Amino acid sequence: MAYWLFKSEPDVWGWDHQTAKGAAGEEWNGVRNYQARNNMRAMQIGDLGFFYHSRSGLEIVGIVEICAESHPDSTSDDPRWDCVDVRAVRPFVKPVSLEQIKADQRLQDMVLVNNSRLSVQPVTDAQWQIICALGDTDP
DNA sequence: GCCAACGTTGGC
DNA sequence: GCCAACGTTGGC
User: Fold this and answer.
1) Is the CB of A80 under 7 A from strand B?
2) Which of A62, A117, A126, A139 is most buried, most CB within 10 Å of its CB?
3) Is A37 (CB) below 7 Å from strand C?
4) Separation of CA A34 and C1' C1 in angstroms?
5) pLDDT tens digits, residue range A59-73?
6) Is CATH 3.10.590.10 correct for A3-134?
């Protein structure tokens, strides 16, 4: 069981879009970066991820679950690009902002802090627990 | 909207 | 295989 973080611009694909897809979930497509793709290839069904709003919002707003393992990205003809499917599990009771994360000494090693441009990132167990606690949300 | 940081591309 | 040029991302 591993933990991840998915970033998306809310104007393009936000938490509301994700929850509207319900239990069936939806492809996390459009990723055209090897590191992000490799992270998706490492995911297993049942892994959980934070849903983060980038560019505007700048906060973790929900938790998603991997519901299909890595497969070809239907939005690309290029066989290099895979993606997983994710479904919304629950929203954050209190969204956790980038500002809060940057201010927390325990979270300074997060990829979100050190490599903000990577759109699909690993999250450690410890980071997961801390952020869920900050958001009053079940891990 | 700006621009720094980063990843990718392609000429040599 | 190097590296300059270019495109994209995302915080501010």
Assistant:
1) no
2) A62
3) no
4) 21
5) 999 999 999 999 999
6) yes
